[in-house]
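Extended Data, record STAS/SEC14 domain-containing protein
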Amino acid sequence: MPISYSILHDPDVLLVSYQGTVTNRDFLGGYKSAYADPRYIPGMPEISDMRRMQIYDIDMNAIQEMITWLAGRECLEGKIIQVGVLVSNELHDGVSRLYRAVSDVYGKEKLKNFADLRSALDWLPIDEADYPKVDTQLSALAGAPG
């Protein structure tokens, strides 16, 4: 899958990895699966790693559908998902900014772009002692076939 995810506990964090070409179907399916996973804790912080994504073939309709779907989830009532987005080029930065512009309307997510994992983890509510665990899991996820 072009989008794969892992849910960690202790620390509680959703890790998402983008690879290769990501389409509407990949985007919607990947995130809806993650958020519907019984291990997911509503509002848990998230790292979205776009650094291995080469083509982003997602249109505004898919972005709007995802954001509307999130906004309608009762389990997120009163919660904001804090998302550290790992980017490595202008495509990734632009994609994240586009998504953020639309998601700001609903106020369910707070996104911020970072060039490296350490900076993203410093911004998220994750204890520094847990950084190696997150790094190891994200590296394994990025190496998953996709």
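Summary. Strands lie at 3-8, 13-23, 46-57, 81-86, 109-114.
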